[in-house]
Design brief:
The protein is built from 6 helices and 6 strands, in the order ββαβαβαβαβαα. With about 180 residues, the chain is of the alpha/beta class.
C-alpha cells in the first residue's frame, strides 16, 4: 500500500511552482480511498498554483522495515495527515512519531487527522486528538483536527476554507513594522 503519487496535471513542476510534500497515513482500505479522494480534491482546488507530492502509508506498516522510510518522508514533509476511524493509535505509531521527531528539521508544517465513516464504536476520539496534538507539538507543526459534522458530510468545508476571518485577515495583512529603530524617540 505504500505509494508515492505526484498529483497534478502538467508533468514536471515549473520553476515558479511550489511542491507541497504530503504524507498520508491510512488505517485501512476505506480510509485510503477517502485519502485519495481528499488529495485529488485538494489538488483540483489549487490548480496550477502548486504541485503536490503525496506518499501513502499504512499504519500497520509503521512497525515494519518501511518505518524508517516513512519517518524520513514525514520529516521532510509539509503536511502529515492521518485518516482513521477514530480509534486510539497503536503503540507502533507513537514510536514512529517519536522517530519522526528525531529526524525532522523543518520549522513549518501541519499535522491533520480526518475521521472517516464509519466511526469506530470503540473510538476514543478525545484520546486520539490529544495524542496527535502532543505529537504535532514535538514535530513543531500546527495541529488541524478535521472532524466531520454529525452527518459525516464534508460539503461545507469549501465554504469554511474560503471564509476570511478576522484572524486570517490579521495574518494576511500584518501591521507594518516601525519605520525607525530609535530608543529615545
Amino acid at each position: 500500500m505504500n505509494a508515492v503519487a505526484a498529483i497534478e496535471g502538467t508533468g514536471l513542476p515549473l520553476p515558479e511552482q511550489e511542491v507541497c510534500k504530503v504524507v498520508v497515513l491510512c488505517e485501512d482500505a476505506s480510509t485510503r480511498e477517502k485519502a485519495v479522494e481528499v488529495c485529488e480534491h485538494l489538488t483540483a482546488q489549487f490548480g496550477d498554483e502548486m504541485m503536490f507530492a503525496v506518499s501513502y502509508w499504512k499504519l500497520a506498516d509503521l512497525a515494519a522495515a518501511t518505518r524508517h522510510s516513512a519517518a524520513k518522508a514525514a520529516a521532510d514533509s509539509d503536511i502529515i495527515v492521518f485518516f482513521t476511524h477514530g480509534d486510539d493509535l497503536p503503540p507502533r505509531v507513537a514510536d514512529w512519531l517519536d522517530l519522526c521527531a528525531t529526524h525532522r528539521i523543518k520549522r513549518e508544517g501541519a499535522m491533520g487527522v480526518l475521521l472517516v465513516e464509519p466511526i469506530s464504536p470503540t473510538a476514543s476520539i478525545g484520546v486520539l486528538l490529544s495524542r496527535l496534538e502532543v505529537a504535532a507539538a514535538r514535530l513543531r507543526v500546527d495541529f488541524l483536527p478535521l472532524l466531520p459534522a454529525a452527518s459525516g458530510d464534508f460539503s461545507g468545508l469549501d465554504d469554511r476554507a474560503q471564509a476570511v476571518t478576522s484572524l486570517l485577515r490579521e495574518i494576511l495583512d500584518p501591521p507594518l513594522p516601525p519605520s525607525h529603530w530609535g530608543l529615545n524617540e
